[in-house]
Amino acid sequence: MASAVSDVSITETKMAETEKKKVIKPLKNFPMEEYINSGHRACQGCAEVLAVRHVLKAIGPDVVMAMATGCMEIISSPYPYTSWTVPWIHIAFENAAAVASGIEAGLKALKRKKRIPDKEITILAMGGDGGTTDIGFQALSGMMERGHKIIYVCVDNEAYMNTGIQRSSSTPFGATTTTSPAGRVAPAGQMTWKKDMVAIAAAHGIPYTATACPTFYNDLQKKILKAKEVDGPSYIHILSVCPTGWRVPLHKAIEYGQLAVDTGVFPLYEVENGVWKLNRKPKELKPVVEYFKGQGRYRHLDDTLTAEIQDKITARWNRLVKMCEADKED
Amino acid sequence: MGQKVGIEVSIAAADAVGLCDVDVVAAYPITPQTHVVEHLAELCASGHLDAEFVPVESEHSAMSVCCGSAAAGARTFTATSAQGLALMAEIVYIASSMRLPMVMFLANRALSAPLSIWNDHSDTMMVRDCGWVQVFCQNGQEVYDSIFHAFKVSEDKRVSLPVMINVDGFALTHVIEPIEFWTKEMVKQYLPPFQPIHTLHPDKVVTMGAFGMPEIYTEAKKALDVALWNSGPVVVEAWNEMAKLTGRQYLPVEKYRTEEAETLILAMGSICETASLAVDEMRESGRKIGMINLRLWRPLPTEELIKALAGARDVIVLDRALTPGGANSPLTSEIRTLMYAEPNRPNIYCMVAGLGGRDVTPNDIKVMVDTALADKHTGHYIYGVRG
Amino acid sequence: MTKPMDQILWQEIEPGGVITEPGNASCYHTGAWRSQKPKYDPDTCIKCWRCYIMCPDCAISPDYENNVFVWNFNYCKGCGICAYECPANAIVMEED
Question: B253-382 belongs to which CATH class?
Fold first, then answer.
């Protein structure tokens, strides 16, 4: 249930309260168990593994997880070691959604035939942006269309980081990667716009889809819990700041998540049974340059390109706000 | 004993899968396999079979669904052919290395290009080294019986490997043959419930599909190699058990009129029936010729094969796949490698025939035998090619 | 305890390479990667949990008895998120 997660965000009032007492009080309704153990080999300051941590905290132990090849797979499972304390399987790069479909179908049949106890088990599929928006796109579409009860989480760090920072269809316009370098012919680096996965997921008519970011861990966990409750497929697209690939300082992943949301570059919203809803609406968007500042992948952008991106981001934001408001009125 | 009915082989195979009370079927249409999954869809829709029918969006996902389903501990089946197998090939290799039991019906068909929906063995030879147990069928009854056998072998804890049943497209899949059906009681007696070694379930947490550093990859592959070799005796044991139940005895290497044979034809699949007719005719004209039907392709029954071939003067291998630019075609290469160290090894000739559905008659086989014996070629010989 | 990978014989590999010991990668100490180390001042700390929540390596945990947060330096990679995100400036990064 969405209400099961309490609001533990740090508001100024709360800070003042705690400051007086300065006593550690247990976090309310915030799961303390870890399902991806320390000892994983994610880069320093990785917000993707942080996202995974919060996704699993929200779901709890009764889960079976299918993961695509990628950063999260490679950092967690060098045989004979595993960082996972939940059932976990990796088969290949492009098929996490299909493998999860098989798990869901198998467990469903076995439960129906009374071969295993009738225990509620969440099926979680997970892939990076390459494994989801590019090579795993078809399998994901099939999973959503067939209506499997699976939460698909895309942990999006906006390039193929595991293979050394190559562009994907989720790399934003203007970002440089090793296969979208900026040059005279391609001044922006990546010359295409980020694929709109949530709109694509929503177009499948699935009951729930949303964006999230570990900076807003509370919102993220709420969304996972919502996804867990719906009867059918759900798709959660999580922006996961990658200090290594974005060329930002190791300690800034949380801050860049905040800026991505506050500039409208990565709005937090959800589509529940066809109804679009903004989850965070800043009074005024910050300019995108504030988000670009300090990111090595955007260092080459000149004023013209920045203005072009700003226009597009503003237009997209306005369209999203309009859609959400129209749905609110309905 | 079950009743004998005239039925299309694909439909009979699907019925057998139903009798095995399969839990998950991943289905994607491709000619000439489609009748199998169509019939399974009917069985599920009508409630005759309590299974999850997953109509996937590609063969790649079909094999991926099968991996997930088998890992969850469900009895799992899929069927495919040619391009479908090519698309899923990546995952075919993973299924065996991860020791995931499942059964795949492969309607053997030529690989593109040019596109051909007709029969040969180029598809299965593409995944020759995939680590699955691979059997070939000569007739409809064998196909039907193979389904029960395949599940039994695949799910046996001593094996725990996927099994591929090779069925010649159209030549077998689409023909109507008299087939003796099994009863539910027979299946119950023959096929125990699936009890996997490990499953994905929160009650007992495991990690499946970890990656292998250079320090461990070789050991992982050795383990698979040994597992596949060790499946051989279980394959035979399961055939022997079936013989007690049905009276039909299958062997990994089947001999036909090989007594005092100087020349042997070696082949796999439905072409063996044609070859046996050719052998009959040649025997009638006094020639010392026989035939070897290699039923078990992986693991290769090496001892039985050596024993069957060692006495002959000439062996003519009917290869239904081509290895362009290679030393020889796949089946011939295998047989030559196997016989190389034998002191009394026969001459081994390769005849590539029946590519892309080209008809092979008993007379063609007689001509191939004569050509090989006269020509004594060392490389592959493509029979019947114009120009 | 799991053997190191370069000592495992092929016979010792669980069928299919299944790992039956959940979370056993915790024997790998990523703390060795660290070049900077967080220094924590419990008196300045406002006990808001943010460091715990934002740690990608699950290296921070509460010690209720002593009313402090503790770092597990076997795992802390020294990324500095905890220090940067601390609203009370109770954590500073120092050379390790």
Answer: alpha beta
Q: State residue A11's pLDDT score.
A: 53
The architecture in CATH of the region A33-329 reads 3-Layer(aba) Sandwich (3.40)
pLDDT digits (tens, 9 = 90+) for B317-350: 999 999 999 999 999 999 999 999 999 899 999 9
Q: In 3-state terms, chain A is what percent helix, strand and coil (to 5)?
A: 40, 15, 45
Instruction: Identify the DSSP state of B229.
Output: H
Q: At A22, phi and psi to the nearest 5? A: 50, 40
Buried b (16+ CB within 10 A) or exposed e, B244-267: ebbeeebbbbbbbbbeebebbbbb
The helix (H) or strand (E) run that includes residue A55 is helix A47-59
How many Å apart are CA B269 and CA B109, to the nearest integer? 12
* Residues above pLDDT 70, as percent of chain C: 99
* Inter-chain residue contact C23 with A82, CB threshold 8 Å: yes
Determine the CATH number of domain B4-246: 3.40.50.970
Q: Is the dihedral of CA C49, C51, C53, C59 positive or negative?
A: negative
Partners of C56 on chain A (C-beta within 8 Å) are: 42, 45-47, 49-50, 53, 253
Q: Is residue C79 part of a domain?
A: yes
pLDDT band of A329, cuts 50, 70, 90: confident
Instruction: Give the tens place of pLDDT for each residue, A309-325.
Output: 999 999 999 999 999 99
Q: Of the candidates A108, A116, A139, which has its C-beta nearest B52's C-beta?
A: A108
Distance CA A268, CA A239 (A): 10
What is the nearest CA distance from C28 to chain A, expressed in angstroms? 5
Q: What is the pLDDT of residue A5?
A: 45
In A93-156, alpha helices (H): 96-112, 129, 137-146
Asked whether residue C69 is domain-assigned, the answer is yes
For chain B, list the strands marked E by DSSP.
4-8, 24-26, 52-54, 76-80, 103-108, 133-136, 163-168, 176-180, 207-208, 253-256, 263-267, 289-294, 296-298, 314-319, 347-352, 380-382
The pLDDT tens digits for B92-148 are 999 999 999 999 999 999 999 999 999 999 999 999 999 999 999 999 999 999 999
CA distance A88 to A82: 9
C5 touches chain A (CB under 8 A): yes
| Cα nearest neighbour of A213 on chain C | C54
Count of beta carbons in the 10 Å neighbourhood of residue B133 = 26
Confidence class for position A4, pLDDT limits 50, 70, 90: very low
ipTM of the complex: 0.97
pLDDT in tens, A50-63: 999 999 999 999 99
The CATH number given to whatever domain includes residue C39 is 3.30.70.20
> Measured between CB atoms, which of B50, B57, B200 is closest to A103?
B200
* CA gap A63, A107 in Å, rounded: 12
CB B137 within 8 A of CB C57: no
Q: A174-229 pLDDT, tens per residue?
A: 999 999 999 999 999 999 999 999 999 999 999 999 999 999 999 999 999 999 99
Domains of chain B, residue spans: 4-246, 253-382
Which chain C residues have any C-beta within 8 angstroms of a chain B C-beta? Answer: 5-6, 8-11, 13-20, 22
Compare all CA atoms of chain A with the CA of B208 and give the residue at the minimum distance: A89
Domain residue limits at C78 = 28-95
**Average of pLDDT values for B150-157?**
98
Contact across the interface for A22 and C45, Cβ inside 8 Å: yes
Question: In chain A, whose CA is at the least distance from the CA of B60?
Answer: A95
Q: Averaged over A219-246, what is the pLDDT?
A: 98
Q: How many structural domains compose chain C?
A: 1
Count of Cβ atoms closer than 10 Å to residue C4 Cβ: 12
Q: How many CA atoms lie within 13 A of A45 on its CB side?
A: 27
Structure tokens at B382: 């493509």
Give the pLDDT confidence score for residue A15 in this predicted structure.
Answer: 54
